Amino acid sequence: MVTEKINGVLLSFETNEKVFSPSSVDEGTLSMLSQVEFKETDKVLDLGCGYGVVGILAGKLIGEQNVTMCDISEDAVGLSKVNAERNLLPHIRIIKSDGLDNVEDRNFTLILSNPPYHADFSVPKKFIEMGFHKLAVGGKMVMVTKRRDWYKNKLISVFGGVRIVEINGYYVFTAEKRSVRKKEKKKNDNVLSRKLKRKRKEINPAKP
Q: pLDDT for 122-164, tens place per residue?
């Protein structure tokens, strides 16, 4: 059992040896959370939620209805559900997902992640590239790692810019989605154009 006061909120978590940082809340996660201001209007995704620290804190601060949590690990998802109940958030949305594969929403204002940075970069690459498309314009992706250059370059290439804060030996990256990328906009415009054409044909079936 782990008990921690985070951002003024006392939380308790059941853990086991199959999940990341089972004996205490990870210092990197705490460093990231020290740089995040949750707002009541936020829609939050805890990406790679582990046993639920970030998402459960967000649920306490802005309401469980505004939070989604996901992880590829069955153990992590199971523990997150137990810990949501333990911290009186029984209706928070927690799903099993390989990255964002099973996350359907595309209007998050905050995506928070402490990715597995001791492995290769395939996981954070997927998180960043897919995360961009799951954010609303003006939404932010916040990540914490002990590596700087690769994350800096990747976030800039996808988002166009990034803010980096070094704290407690970790780097906290914040990247904002300032606009829809041209490629994505063109695709959306094409979809809209096809819908308009279909609607016009329904109204005026004789016209080409």
A: 999 999 999 999 999 999 999 999 999 999 999 999 999 999 9
Amino acid identity for residue 117 in this structure? Y
pLDDT at site 116: 86
Residue 193 lies in domain: 180-208
Convert the pLDDT of each residue in 88-131 to its tens digit. 999 999 999 999 999 999 999 999 999 987 768 999 999 999 99
Q: Tell me, yes or no, whether 22 and 49 share the same domain.
A: yes
What CA–CA distance (Å, rounded) separates 155 from 174? 9
- Compute the distance between CA of residue 151 and CA of residue 156 in angstroms, rounded to an integer: 8
SS3 at position 170: strand
Centre a 10 Å sphere on the Cβ of residue 63 and count the other Cβ atoms it contains: 16
Q: Which residues pair with 77 in a beta bridge?
A: none
Per the CB < 8 A criterion, the answer to whether 113 and 127 are in contact is yes
Report in angstroms the alpha-carbon separations of 207 from 10, 26, 97, 198, 199.
66, 64, 46, 11, 12
| Whether 89 and 113 share a structural domain | yes
Residues 84 and 173 in one domain: yes
